[in-house]
């Protein structure tokens, strides 16, 4: 019985030796000298520095009005194309309860 235990330990020892120690690939700069930010102080600084409300963003007028939508190249899906799909790629049919749920916008 002692032979079995020692052979298992030898195998475990070989496995442990095969694992290399972790070498980090990313090195971050030392932050020891950088003071940690204080949330309360930051909020006070923001409140003092900007007493007026922020300016509203006004959208720029477009140089030309948007044109009609164009279809992407390719063949549109047809009933024949959908029927040729294997069953596992076809969309599952919705039940009446599911359609009602979607039309309601969620639970009642």
From TrEMBL:
GO terms for molecular function: oxoglutarate dehydrogenase (succinyl-transferring) activity. InterPro entries: Kgd4/YMR-31. The keyword Ribosomal protein applies. It is found in: Mitochondrion. GO terms for cellular component: mitochondrion; ribosome. Keywords: Mitochondrion, Ribonucleoprotein, Ribosomal protein. Belongs to the alpha-ketoglutarate dehydrogenase component 4 family. This is Mitochondrial 28S ribosomal protein S36. It comes from Oncorhynchus mykiss. The gene is RT36.
């Amino acid at each position: 019985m002692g032979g079995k235990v020692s052979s298992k330990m030898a195998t475990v020892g070989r496995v442990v030796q095969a694992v290399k120690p972790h070498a980090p690939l990313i090195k971050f700069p030392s932050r020891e000298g950088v003071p940690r930010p204080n949330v309360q102080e930051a909020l006070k600084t923001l409140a003092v520095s900007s007493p007026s409300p922020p300016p509203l963003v006004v959208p720029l007028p477009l140089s030309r009005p948007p044109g009609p939508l164009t279809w992407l190249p390719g063949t549109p899906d047809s009933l024949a194309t959908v029927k040729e799909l294997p069953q596992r790629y076809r969309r599952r049919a919705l039940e009446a309860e599911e359609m009602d749920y979607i039309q309601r916008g969620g639970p009642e």
